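Continuing the batch. This is chain 6 of the set; chains 1 through 5 are on the previous pages. Same settings as before, nothing changed between runs. Recording input and output for traceability.
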Amino acid sequence: MRLLDVGAVLDRERDIRTVDSETETEVLKEHDDKSTSYVIVSHRWGKEVTYKEMTRLHAMNPRKRDDIRERDGYQKIIKSCEQAKKDGYRWLWIDTCCIDKRSSSELSEAINSMYRWYRNSEMCYVYLHDVDEPSFPAKQDFSRFGKSNGWPEWFSRGWTLQELIAPENAQFFNKDWVPIGTKEKLVSKLEDITRIPKLVLSWGEVPRDKLYSRERPCIAQIMSWAADRKTARLEDRAYSLLGLFGVNMPMLYGEGSKAFQRLQLEIIRTSSDHSILAWNRKAQPKLYGSVLARDPSYFRGCHDIKNVDPSRFVEKVKKCIGEGEPVVAADQDELLSFYNSVDSTRLLRWDVTNLGIQVSLPVLSDRYEDYIYEAILPCRDCHGNLITIGLASDGPRSRHTYLPFDVYPTYACPEFRSLYLDCFEEPEEIWDEVPLALRDGDTSSYGFTRCGTFRRTEVAGDTVTFSSQGDTLIVLVYANDDARCRFAVGLGYYLGEHWGCVVCDESSAQQEASSSWADFAKQAYDIMWNAPISKSPDNTKDVHLPQTIFHVEIARESRETVIRIEQCPGCCGEPVATVWARACGVFWSKD
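Output for chain 6:
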């Protein structure tokens, strides 16, 4: 790796106005990351300094040189070198000028090595350019960090995920390079912000041994950490995750979303973790498609998924069938034959072939339409339920499909079957903007106000607009401070149809309902994103607000979504947990 000589950089800066243009100052030198003690910088890119500019600064004409030295990126280098010298380090690495990005081979090597470079550093300086205070932000603040989920922008970027996890030691700085906390002391806050377990943050790496150990995050969980992060280049959403999964692959800028497909196939070649197939089906824009996710955002809400040890998988399936979920039309002899057929060795084997991904899984077929079925994955959700994926036969391959949870209530006897799962990239479906009129004026008659919205879907006045380039679920929070109650309405667009959901919050009785509405909105979003969608013909969804006299109803009328509040005879006192557990979306046809 190429490192900045801290002393040489600072000496050159001190003497730069008088230095002879013929005198060369070597500020970058090659070193081995395993045997060199160095610090490394993590930051949000702005107007930076390139390798060429950094190495030729001394030879530039004064005007051009001063222009570079006035950049925020150059000052960032100087300040980080000053901090490194103060801390007793001679060498420093920063991705802006330590990589010659004109060389594709050097860039590819750097990207494939970057996780290791951060891991082997003595200290990582995390520079938060948008934090003014002399302390780390104590809570989410959408007024200051509205474009980055209420936290400093550094937490919303794709590359900074590995830069947070990999270093064993990290020091956070505000915009003026004032220290505002260490990774060790902020670990609880960092877990709250990122949902990365403390154990992973403390270890400084993702444990890869013991596939089914309690400490090891599954693939879906790791992907969920990146679900809401952004990168300047689409391909970097995949390339920035290489180190977290311990895989390598060449960089092919211009391949678009195929980069994420390649990443998943590389992971599959080195892993037996079925959770890579357990992404949320609400992210699938089409009825049929690849079993691989198109983007990390498909794993939003998968932070609680766990793998099931193959040795316990059959017992888990047996328990589910015994409890009547799913309903299986088979006698005990047929079920016993199925249980005995599940081979844990075959379950763990994956092969990537020209027909697709070859796997062996238990399959539940509909009694009357056996070309549509569900495959049971050795993974469980936060409630302990086994996760299934909907599949449809397409010649020798099986394609991912949507199966509403109440369409096929009774299955034939399960089979342990070898499958070829479609994993081939298809053109992204681009659909026009879909507006949805919102009528909620009546809520104010009962003292409720709309506090705000969660997620990036556009809301202009009383119109919600969904598009293929934005989120397909938005959450609106309504609160009544006098009654100390609030509720959230989720509006979504999925498979060409609108859907809706409502969730209430009992905890608001202890505080002003409009305070911390963003926290509630985030919780409600997670619930709605993971809730099943009913193919019910009913165009209405309603719920009673616990400990109040209010009843909330959302309904689809013509081209409008109507939110109504009515008074009911009295308080039902139903616990919020019960209400939340029943949160379920209902489809509304377009017209």
